[in-house]
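Standup notes
- DV: blocked on the single-chain target, sequence here:
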Amino acid sequence: MLDAEIETALSDHLNREIYSSHLYYSMAAWFEARTLKGFSHWLRIQALEELSHVQKFFSYVPERGGRLRMLAVEAPPIEWKSPLAVFQAVHAHEVGVSAMINRLADLAIAKGDHATVNFLQWFIAEQVEEEASADEAVQRLKLVDQTPGGLFLLDQEMNKRVFTVLPEVAAAF
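- DV (later): unblocked, structure below
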């Protein structure tokens, strides 16, 4: 059985993951409006990844005897100054998510909830990849800044990203 404080914290985090998906769809829409469909594609996949994280929390909490609380989703920003600004915001957001997950792990450790600590280890490792992926996009956008055609070529490269459904998420359906 989940401790009440951990149950609430996990539920709150699930809702933050929904916001993350919402944010990335908003960013994808910004790129769509600029006909940069590769960047949009990359962000739509990122949004789907966040929804797969939601599914992991959605499965875990009830499995431990807890109940999730679905909250209103805050409206994300809809405008950015440039493609670089979008991906700088992606990176900053992922750094913030990492901090949230670390606080969840700290709480689970403090409460002696080893099952939740174990559950969160996947997210801790995932966040290393999430931050690195976002930072790579930032660094690549900095490289093509002021390069004629560079943004176009990078847009084509971003379109190659593939979404892989996690087996435990697929099994939930």
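- Follow-up: The longest helix spans residues 114-144.
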